[in-house]
Design a protein that fits this description.
fumarase; alpha/beta; 506 residues
């Protein structure tokens, strides 16, 4: 099949850079529902602008281009070994072109392959079908932030705020609600969930992920599951978690549920959480040539989502520039919108672990540390950042407080908030947490004026420490130097609302 590899490269590129039509409709509906001027509305405005930018430039919607997962149906007799090899070649080429971030890391050594290839990467599932004329390939790119919010429950169990979940549909209901609640803003809400009732631990997660290939606006053919899907979508949006966990009317944009038979001794409920950057497309190919004959999920002429060019500013935004003093930081309060100017350093998992036993390669006194693993391309001897949204900050909770205390970091940019150790260090030392909008990789890349340098590149592009100059980089203070945390407030308030859903429904 002469055209199969090129078709796969086009599928990968479009999946990384273009949201499917059903997801675009869901985001457009969320924009209509949120009250103008709220933090959630501002976050959605950035999201909409980012989606438009990614579509216009064919750049990654989110810098975390996820784990590529292919679901492929082929006629009997098609050589799957050849198809797999061509998919691997297309993945490597898409990575070289900057459509995918190099994400495949050796679990023992931490070494990044640089190509997105390695044991288990990408994930490819083949299935034979009786159609002799066509091959169907569906692809989902599910990032690490939302993947970390997956959950699996074994019924019966006790759930915080919801009580006992029994081995029935109402117990399933409680598990799904709990999974959505505990994700808060760490999975880049407003998100979607795929759910599997039953199976074993492995098949349950796989089947839950398969549910995410269903269009958000379809109707489950099983009437009981259709009713549960409708209920979950409505109930989740009463929790006031909202976009990015800022509070708001839209927490969930889709719920899709399937079921598998199980062993009598096991009753698993598996929940696959996906973020608003719900990257999922498919193609149907001519089985003889590998050429694309039609697209699945795709809007051929997507209309702009953003209501205006750029993000509406109020004039009350506060400009901050490193090096920051303690006095600068203590003037800031939860809810303030800041525009970051000047120099920032990126640092995520490998950098934080490194700094616990090594001195930093730069002076971090008064610095702004950005939890970000960008997509970076080297062109004509210079680095260019093509996607640069925030990663989930909670992974750095074991390290962040100590790094603030030890090195004098004054501001941390990330998404989803951090925990009590970090909050205590911020209060003691004078530092703040700035919540950027998860997934808005193109929007934030436009705020980067220059790459001033890169350190610890041996960790791989996502994990290196990038030295950047930014301009008008917007973020919201969600943890301040006075001991206040918006994330704690939203979690506490949403828990009270969750408790109201404890009574049986099904």
């Amino acid at each position: 099949m002469r055209a199969f590899k090129e078709s796969m490269l086009e599928l990968i590129t479009k999946t990384s850079t273009t949201l499917p039509a059903d997801v675009r409709r869901a985001i457009a509906a969320a924009l209509e529902q949120e009250e103008p001027g709220t933090r959630a509305a501002q976050a959605l405005a950035i999201i909409a602008t980012n989606v438009d930018m990614a579509c216009e430039t064919e750049g990654p919607i989110c810098q975390d281009t996820g784990m590529p997962t292919f679901e492929i149906k082929v006629p009997v007799g098609v050589n799957q070994i050849v198809l797999k090899q061509q998919i691997l070649e297309a993945i490597a080429e898409a990575t070289r072109l900057g459509k995918l971030r190099p994400n495949s890391v050796d679990s023992l050594t931490g070494k990044n392959s640089g190509t997105n290839l390695g044991p288990g990467t990408p994930i490819i599932h083949f299935e034979q079908w009786e159609n002799e004329e066509e091959i169907e390939v569906r692809l989902i790119l599910k990032g690490g932030g939302c993947e970390n919010q997956n959950a699996q429950y074994s019924l019966p169990c006790e759930l915080p705020h919801l009580g006992r979940a029994d081995r029935n549909l109402d117990g399933v209901r409680k598990c799904i609600l709990h999974a959505i609640w505990q994700a808060q803003g760490q999975g880049c809400s407003a998100g979607a969930v795929g759910v599997c009732i039953g199976g074993d631990r492995a098949s349950g997660y796989h089947h839950a992920k398969l549910q995410l290939f269903r269009p958000l606006d379809d109707v489950n053919p099983d009437p009981d599951l259709a009713r549960l899907e409708e209920y979950i979508l409505k109930a989740a949006n009463t929790l006031n978690i909202g976009t990015m966990g800022f509070g708001g009317r839209v927490t969930l944009i889709g719920c899709k549920i399937g079921a598998l038979n199980r062993l009598p001794a096991s009753f698993f409920v598996s929940v696959a959480y996906d973020c608003w950057a719900f990257r999922r497309l498919g193609v149907v190919l001519d089985a003889r040539t590998g050429e694309i004959t039609r697209w699945l999920y795709r809007d051929e002429r997507p209309q702009p989502l953003a209501r205006a060019e750029g993000v509406p500013l109020t004039g009350r935004e506060i400009a901050i520039r490193a090096p920051l003093s303690e006095e600068d930081v203590r003037r800031l309060n939860v809810g303030d919108v800041v525009l970051v100017q000047g120099e920032v350093f990126t640092g995520r998992d490998a950098v934080h672990a490194h700094l616990m036993t090594h001195e930093p390669p730069v002076d971090l006194r008064g610095a702004i540390l950005y939890h970000c693993g960008p997509v970076a391309l080297r062109e004509d001897g210079r680095w260019r950042i093509t996607a640069a949204g925030p990663t989930t900050s909670m992974r750095e909770e074991p390290y962040q407080g100590e790094i603030i205390r030890r090195y004098g970091v004054r501001a941390v940019i990330g998404k989803g908030g951090m925990g009590p150790k970090t909050l205590a260090a911020m209060k003691d030392c004078g530092a703040v947490y700035l919540n950027a909008i998860g997934g808005a990789a193109q929007y934030y890349a436009r705020c980067i004026e220059e790459v001033l340098g890169v350190h610890l590149l041996e960790f791989g592009i996502p994990e290196a420490m990038w030295h950047l100059r930014v301009k008008d980089f917007p973020a919201i203070v969600t943890m301040d130097a006075h001991g206040n945390s918006l994330h704690e407030d939203v979690e506490r308030a949403s828990a009270i609302l969750l408790e109201r859903l404890a009574e049986p429904v099904f």
